[in-house]
Amino acid sequence: MTDSAPLILLIEDEEDIRDAVATLLEMEGYRVAQCINGEDAWTWLRLHPRPGLVLLDLMMPVMDGQAFLAKLSQERMLEGVPIIVLSGSPFRPPGAVAYLRKPVAVDPLMEVVRRFLPSSGEGPEGPPTS
């Protein structure tokens, strides 16, 4: 994987889910930065380049996903960056381009990620079409 691979910021407090999703994304050719809650992610964002996509859990300690989205809308730090919510909650917050209900299956997750952030590992013709 190269530094030119698309970067995804994964914000998830459950370590097993975070590790599984990160491993899957890395196998698909993405770079993944992992944060355990919204506050952790906010600190990361101030110190690193903008990600191409954010995967956000809603229910987390310290700063939950909804508080993170509210702060993002005030600060406008990630304008234009797609945010995909992964949550067990049925609530789809404003500011998210997509919502996937946990437990998330591999195919729907990868389909939505590829839709908003094509992997550099794909051929010149892009993702397969159906």
From TrEMBL:
- Domain Response regulatory residue range list: 7-117
Q: Which UniProt keywords apply?
A: Phosphoprotein
Q: Which residues cross the membrane?
A: none
- 4-aspartylphosphate PTM positions: 57
Pfam families per record: Response_reg (PF00072)
InterPro entries with a match to the protein in the record: Bact_response_regulator, CheY-like_superfamily, Sig_transdc_resp-reg_receiver
Record carries keyword Protein biosynthesis: no
What is one GO biological process annotated to this record? phosphorelay signal transduction system
Please name the SUPFAM superfamilies in this protein's record. CheY-like
Q: Does the keyword Phosphoprotein apply?
A: yes
User: What protein does this entry describe?
Assistant: Response regulator
Provide the species name: Corallococcus carmarthensis
